[in-house]
Design brief:
Blueprint: H1 2-16, H2 18-22, H3 25-45, H4 48-71, H5 77-91, H6 93-96, H7 106-120, H8 137-150, H9 158-178, H10 181-201, H11 206-230, H12 240-255
Helix pairs in contact: 1-4, 3-4, 8-10, 9-10, 11-12
Length: about 260
């Protein structure tokens, strides 16, 4: 079966490929996130070939992680599959025990699903923030901040939140001076979190604002590439000074 071949290939890569061998579960998480976004984009674009290929890339991340944990004798791919099988059956009694749950409406099915989820969590300590889904970091940050604000854990004013940004930037500068990679990453994350909080206080969506800036950057960089082509050149051959001059021209065009 293809899945068995894929599992064998993954095992071989972990044994013989230097890059694959060097990876850890932690180092690969960014790729799982990236591949999930690629799947979303392919589905939005509607290309069947791309959807199939991107789903394969996402599946690879599951197989890769499973192989690494199998090497630790924690669990393997079959255990992952069995876990989701058990969960699907457990959370769909209206399907697999239909005689006991006949003719449920969509709303009743949703209520039953939530009830079963709560039963699964019985005995576990639940945080006030537990219902916030793990997803895109900006969205998580905004939802966490909004929920914390509901119980009064919030800055009184936007200016107070902005002052926190300046404080975090100062701490980032200190970490950079000390050349401590772990501290640099931690302080950089604090800067982002604090800046998102300012956006929340201003009733701005961090995701929308960042996507707008990304679009602006892409547009201006495309202008640089177009100008380079008009000169029969490549951006790879341009100096920083030349690109900066074209960037300023692009800014003038987009602001006019």
């Amino acid at each position: 079966m293809p899945i068995e071949q894929l599992l064998k290939i993954m095992q071989q890569l972990r044994e013989q490929c230097p890059w694959d061998r060097a990876q850890t579960p932690q180092s690969l998480t960014r790729y799982a996130i990236e591949e999930a976004y690629e799947v979303e984009d392919a589905i939005r674009q509607g290309s069947i070939d791309e959807i199939r290929n991107e789903l394969g890339d996402l599946l690879l991340q599951v197989v890769f992680q499973s192989q690494m944990y199998a090497e630790q004798q924690a669990f393997n791919f079959d255990d992952v599959v069995q876990a989701i099988i058990d969960k699907l059956i457990r959370r769909h009694p209206h399907v697999f025990q239909a005689e006991q749950y006949a003719n449920l409406s969509s709303e009743q099915v949703s209520e039953l699903w939530q009830k079963i989820k709560q039963q699964e969590k019985q005995g576990q300590t639940q945080s006030y923030l537990s219902d916030i889904k793990h997803g895109p970091a900006i969205s998580q940050a905004e939802q966490i901040q909004k929920k914390a604000a509901k119980i009064g854990f919030d800055f009184a004013t936007t200016q107070d939140a902005l002052s926190k940004v300046h404080e975090e930037i100062s701490e980032l500068e200190q970490a950079i001076q000390q050349n401590n990679p772990d501290e640099i990453q931690a302080e950089f994350g604090d800067c982002l979190f604090s800046l998102i909080n300012v956006g929340r206080k201003l009733e701005l969506s961090g995701e929308v604002a960042l996507l707008s800036t990304i679009h602006k950057f892409r547009t201006r960089f495309a202008f640089i590439e177009d100008q380079a082509r008009l000169q029969d050149r490549s951006v790879h051959d341009m100096s920083l000074s030349e690109m900066d001059q074209l960037w300023e021209q692009a800014k003038q065009q987009t602001s006019s």
